[in-house]
Design goal:
This protein is mainly alpha-helical. The protein has one domain. Helix 3 crosses helix 5, helix 3 packs across helix 8 and helix 4 packs across helix 5. The two termini are 32 Å apart. The mean pLDDT is 81.
Length: 219
């Protein structure tokens, strides 16, 4: 090889296969997560409650860890604030675990507001980068989709009346209007993660070695 010869660049498949990825296991995991996401599309209400419950449990663990950590910084000036933040985490997690339905309602409001704010900011950024070429149109469309999703979620939400919450039928009717939203997002996220793992595993699958033409002729 001379100095002018191009340096061979390994293929993406070669790079991934040499990285230690076992594509078969990764493919199986991707298929499993995708199937779970598809199943989740049919049980979005339960998925919402389960997601909020487990999120609350994780917040409790995080808050407890922060409270325990506070005892290791006795001379820190911000020790009290550090402990208060941990306590707030624990209390918020307990509320989510004890009242997952009401917690899901407020988390859904937060989700809608986040989509609206992110969509508006993304749309403003799109107009600021118009000199970058057609890319700004993609950013603008992405921002508008987030804004539309935010308004759609807000449109499905309704504050319950005192009468509606007095009976199980009234509670079920109230939840039926919006309880699917968080579960739908979780199911879609599972499907996207599963598909990504499937594509990554297929890219990491070692290519079959090519048989030299001379060997074929010899046979």
């Amino acid at each position: 090889m001379t100095a002018t010869d191009p340096v061979p660049v390994p293929s993406m498949s070669r790079v991934l296969s040499d990285s230690g990825i076992r594509w078969g296991w990764l493919l199986a995991l991707g298929i499993l997560i995708t199937v779970l996401g598809i199943l989740g599309l049919g049980m979005t209400y339960w998925l919402t409650i389960v997601a909020v419950f487990w999120f609350g449990a994780l917040v409790i663990v995080a808050g407890a860890a922060q409270l325990i950590d506070a005892f290791h910084h006795k001379e820190w000036r911000s020790l009290a604030l550090h402990a208060i933040i941990g306590l707030v985490y624990v209390l918020a997690g307990l509320v989510m675990v004890a009242m997952p339905v009401f917690s899901a309602f407020w988390l859904t409001i937060f989700l809608a507001a986040s989509l609206l704010v992110a969509g508006i900011f993304r749309s403003v950024i799109a107009f600021q980068v118009r000199e970058a070429g057609p890319l700004w149109i993609t950013i603008l469309i992405s921002g508008l989709i987030s804004v539309v999703l935010g308004f759609m979620i807000f449109g499905t939400l309704s504050h319950p009346s005192a009468e509606a919450l007095t009976t199980p039928a009234g509670q079920a009717e109230w939840i039926r209007g919006w309880g699917w939203i968080i579960g739908l997002f979780v199911a879609i996220e599972l499907i996207m993660e599963g598909v990504s793992l499937i594509l990554l595993s297929l890219a990491a699958k070692p290519a079959k070695p090519e048989t030299p033409a001379g060997a074929i002729a010899a046979h």
